[in-house]
Design brief:
Layout: E1 2-6, E2 10-16, E3 21-27, E4 36-40, E5 49-51, E6 56-58, E7 66-68, E8 72-77, E9 85-89, E10 95-97, E11 102-105, E12 109-119, E13 122-133, E14 138-144, E15 149-152, E16 169-171, E17 182-188, E18 191-196, E19 200-201, E20 210-214, E21 219-223, E22 235-239, E23 246-250, E24 260-263, E25 271-274, E26 280-284, E27 291-296, E28 301-303, E29 307-313, E30 327-332, E31 340-346, E32 352-354, E33 361-363, E34 367-377, E35 381-391, E36 396-402, E37 408-411, E38 421-424, E39 434-438, E40 444-448, E41 454-456, E42 465-466, E43 468-470, E44 480-485, E45 494-499, E46 505-508, E47 517-520, H1 526-529, E48 531-534, E49 539-543, H2 553-568, E50 572-575, H3 580-587, E51 592-596, E52 599-600, E53 603-605, E54 611-613, H4 614-618, E55 630-634, H5 649-654, E56 660-664, H6 670-685, H7 690-707, E57 719-723
Helix pairs in contact: 2-6, 6-7
Length: about 725
């Protein structure tokens, strides 16, 4: 762009930047006849000034626009690389600033702190308005010099958000209890709120009490406070005439007085107002804790660990509230509920999903992930790590069985502390029972139920090195974890057993003799290193039907399991082709067992080659049936006389301590039993008694017999039972 200037002999063009001024001058001089000049302005601009907000921030936690008298904070230029700032204060008598951005509170008032900086061809600036206050927000003990006592409130009289009007008192000796700690918070316009220092809980709704002027009586006490404090709860805090303390005066203009807070006469007196006032010393509590605790609802104590471990049972169909799992976050120290802006869960987890705001988690797979609990208030942000482990089992007794050989983890020699653990036959002896103790970090101790000894792995695992047992509680060598193996069937649960302290997995010995178990490094062998864990389940169902492959069985089994899950929320195991080993294990690790198959007084069929017999049951000790509460034999003649009525399947099962066992004296029709089964189980799952459920099932069986023109075979008159029919197995 060109500009023509005429009729001049000289001119000057002045350009002023944020830093300095530049002048461009032209003088035609006496030796020229030109009375005009052309000035060319380039098509690009240099030296422009811009404001880029957000380039300045405090390098320390605190209220971002407040500073106390005598306090120093640092403002950081977070601008372009290599930018150098020039700092200035609009009111250095209140707040001064040096060349490095360090500001210092000088006196009450406010100042605009500006930083000018240059980047390439651009001149930029940013600013912050800072207010200097008499007393900075914090935790204080308030000391009365004339009475030599400390302002104190009884914590027992303060309930979360519902606080009666009360009078603080003075106690002679200082203490570290929160009853003598007060949070003085700057509210703006040189006004403050004064609140008792209280631990506030995120799970509660309400606000903390504040020190207020009670208008009707002219005395100072405690009353409820809101987020926007009334004038009665706002205070001036000003240096006293002597300069040795502070006057605390109420700001309620309706009183039309300027009295200051005053102690009435004695060390236990209430607070009132007087013209002469009293001096109060504010002793800042610099060691007050600041951060987030997690309240452990089981122990009733606050957990102060740097990272809180939490375990969640693996169930993808459930959503867990962390507070229900014993995790309840509380904020303490220099924060209270009235200042809370947000509370979030942050982190990238693969073992579970988590709602950022509610903290509800849904398990995805076994494993551990760390998330962060973040609380943000008006002037501070605090974080705490939480390690959440998704685990397969709660603490419980189990049987650990090799999936391929169907043999169980056993104790080789219970008299020797250091004996090796071996694989033995499935004799269901107590030596094959192990207790899983779930640890807070998601690992497990595995101890022998019979001996109390701990299953341990070698400190330096080597191929084929035997695992051992120990009397005393081990360290890392005794901590185990489970890794689920994907078999392609979502309802099939198989695991690797892994030591926490080293690589390797529990396996059968490579010599294939099945004489021992060892810790094996290297490649995973499905036949030798896959394990089934039998825990106490709610129910087990064995539905063979008329014969193996009966097409009626899958739908009936599915209907029964859905009733259990939907109505009673129970979990269990069902099969249409169970083996004897599986049934024997499950009978000793379940609460309810159901059969739908063929049978007689001495046995029920499990598959084409195996039966469950009275002899099998008699061979097991009664202690193995502690969990079993109810058994139903949907088979012919399980309650008939046989060679000895007392030795039929019903009575032998009941003699093991089972609360209720049900069967039939004579033959029952397959079609009736099929019709009976699902309504019977559904009624049980609704919480009914065995007797009530039998009536519902028999009614359906009776209808089936009538439709087919037969005399019903399933009826109460042919029923044989042991125990009490009024028990409610699913209640």
């Amino acid at each position: 762009m060109k500009k023509l200037l005429t009729g001049i002999t000289a001119f000057a063009l002045v350009i002023t930047s944020a830093f300095t001024s530049y002048a461009l001058a032209f003088d035609a001089g006496s030796g020229t006849t030109a009375d005009s000049a052309v000035i060319t302005e380039e098509d690009y601009a240099r030296g422009e000034s811009h404001s880029y907000n957000g380039f300045l921030y405090y390098s320390c936690y605190g209220e971002n626009d407040i500073i106390g008298i005598g306090e120093t904070k640092t403002i950081v230029l977070h601008g372009p690389p290599d930018a150098v700032g020039v700092w200035s204060s609009s009111n250095p008598s209140c707040i001064s600033v040096d060349a490095n951005g360090n500001i210092t509170g000088v006196s009450k008032g406010s100042a605009r702190i500006t930083c000018n900086f240059e980047y390439i061809d651009n001149k930029m600036y940013d600013y912050m308005t800072i207010e200097c206050v008499e007393v900075k927000t914090g935790i204080y003990k308030i000391h009365n010099s004339s009475e030599n006592g400390y302002l104190t409130i009884d914590r027992n009289n303060i309930n979360s958000g519902v606080v009666p009007v009360g009078a603080p008192k003075i106690t002679g000796n200082p203490s570290n209890t929160t009853g003598q700690m007060w949070r003085i918070q700057y509210m703006g316009n040189q006004m403050y709120s004064i609140r008792p220092y209280l631990m506030m809980d995120f799970c509660l709704r309400g606000e903390g009490p504040a020190l207020v002027d009670i208008k009707d009586y002219g005395t100072a006490g405690l009353n409820n406070a809101t987020n926007t404090l009334s004038e009665q709860a706002q205070w001036w805090i000003e240096k006293s005439n002597t300069g040795n303390g502070y006057y605390l005066s109420n700001s309620d203009m309706d009183l039309m007085v300027e009295d200051t807070i005053y102690l009435q006469g004695n060390a236990a007196g209430v607070l009132s107002f007087a013209q002469n006032g009293q001096e109060w010393a504010l002793e800042e509590v610099t060691d007050a804790p600041t951060g987030i605790n997690f309240y452990d609802t089981e122990s009733g104590k606050n957990d102060t660990e740097s990272s809180y471990p939490l375990t969640v049972l693996m169930d993808t169909s459930k959503t867990y509230r962390l507070s229900d799992l014993g995790l309840r976050p509380t904020i303490y120290g220099l924060c209270d509920l009235t200042e809370l802006h947000s509370f979030e869960w942050n982190g990238s987890a693969t073992a579970f999903s988590i709602n950022k705001y509610t903290g509800k988690i849904t398990p995805i797979t076994l494993g551990s992930d760390m998330i962060t609990c973040k609380a943000t208030t008006a002037w501070i942000t605090v974080n705490k790590a939480v390690i959440i482990s998704i685990v397969p089992f709660e603490s419980c007794d189990v049987i650990i069985q090799n999936s391929n050989s169907k043999k169980c983890l056993d104790i080789q020699d219970i008299t020797v502390s250091g004996s090796a653990a071996i694989i033995n036959t499935s004799d269901l002896d107590d030596s094959q029972r192990w207790h899983l103790e779930l640890l807070r970090d998601g690992g497990y101790y595995i101890t022998s139920v019979k001996t109390g000894r701990y299953l341990t792995a070698p400190n330096t695992p080597m191929p084929e090195q035997s695992i051992t047992v120990k009397d005393s509680e081990p360290s890392t060598e005794g901590i185990w974890s489970f890794e689920r193996i994907d078999t392609g069937n979502p309802d099939e649960y198989r695991y690797k057993l892994l030591p926490r302290h080293a690589a390797g997995h529990l396996s059968l010995n490579a010599n294939s003799t099945d004489e021992g178990a060892s810790l094996v490094e290297g490649n995973y062998n499905a036949e030798k290193s896959t394990w089934q864990i039998y825990t106490v389940s709610d129910y087990s169902m064995y539905l063979r039907g008329y014969e193996d492959g009966d097409t009626n069985m899958p739908p009936i089994l599915s209907a029964c399991q859905n009733s259990m899950k939907t109505n009673a929320g129970l979990s269990g195991w069902g099969s249409t082709g169970a083996t004897k080993a599986e049934v024997m294990l499950n009978l000793t690790t379940t609460r309810m067992a159901f059969f739908l198959t063929h049978g007689n007084y001495a046995a029920v069929q499990l598959n084409a080659t195996e039966n469950l017999t009275t002899s099998d049951l008699q061979s097991l000790g009664n202690s193995l049936f502690t969990n079993l509460k109810f058994v139903f034999y949907g088979a012919c003649s399980t309650g008939s006389g046989g060679a000895s009525y007392n030795q039929n399947l019903i009575n032998v099962t009941g003699s093991k301590g089972v609360d209720c066992v049900v069967g039939y004296r004579g033959s029952i029709m397959v079609s009736e039993c099929n019709a009976f089964y699902a309504p019977f189980v559904e009624e049980l799952s609704n919480g009914s008694t065995v007797e009530e459920a039998l009536a519902v099932g028999h009614e359906v069986a009776l209808e089936n017999a009538a439709e087919n023109g037969r005399t019903p075979s399933m009826k109460l008159s042919t029923l044989c039972y042991y125990g009490d029919l009024t028990v409610k197995p699913c209640a």
